[in-house]
């Protein structure tokens, strides 16, 4: 898949510093993976990362922890996201563009 030609429709600036994200499917009974990856670029409502996992599909819903840290005391926020684009980068690598849809609340609301 190539990049679409024409003006860039992004409304937010991209941060091109790598950030760590944790990605897993929202339907674990259908797909089984849990990846910790670095982004190539990110914005408040989107991220782009590279994976060798061939289970990603356009439209797939994910749980994304963004940014992610395993350091003690880290506060990791989970989000519901959707795969909006997949780029074939060669050598089994795929560029995955995700749109962050909403925070995943971990509180019961009591």
List the helices and strands and how they pair.
Layout: E1 20-25, E2 35-43, E3 46-51, E4 61-65, E5 78-90, E6 93-103
Spans of at least 5 consecutive residues whose pLDDT stays below 50 are none
Summed up, the domain count is 1
Overall mean pLDDT stands at 87
Task: Identify the strand order in the major beta sheet.
Answer: 1-2-3-6-5-4
Instruction: Tell me the helix content.
Output: under 10%
Counting DSSP E segments of at least 2 residues, the number of strands comes to 6
- Give the CATH architecture: Beta Barrel
Order of helices and strands: EEEEEE
CATH class: Mainly Beta
Classified in CATH, the superfamily is: predicted glycosyltransferase like domains
Query: Over all CA atoms, what is the radius of gyration?
Result: 14 Å
Give the termini distance in whole angstroms. Answer: 47 Å
SSE-based structural type: mainly beta
Strand content: over 45%
CATH topology type:
Thrombin, subunit H
Shape: globular
Give the number of helices.
Answer: 0
Largest sheet: 6 strands, antiparallel, barrel
């Amino acid at each position: 898949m190539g990049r679409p030609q024409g003006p860039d429709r992004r409304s937010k600036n991209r941060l091109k510093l790598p950030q760590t994200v944790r990605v897993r499917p929202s339907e674990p009974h259908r797909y089984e993976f849990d990846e910790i990856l670095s982004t190539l670029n990110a914005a408040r409502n989107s991220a782009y990362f590279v994976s060798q996992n061939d289970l990603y599909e356009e439209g797939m819903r994910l749980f994304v922890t963004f940014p992610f840290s395993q350091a003690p005391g880290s506060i990791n926020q989970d989000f519901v996201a959707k795969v909006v684009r997949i780029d074939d980068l060669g050598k089994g690598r795929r560029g995955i563009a995700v749109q962050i849809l909403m925070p995943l609340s971990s509180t019961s609301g009591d």
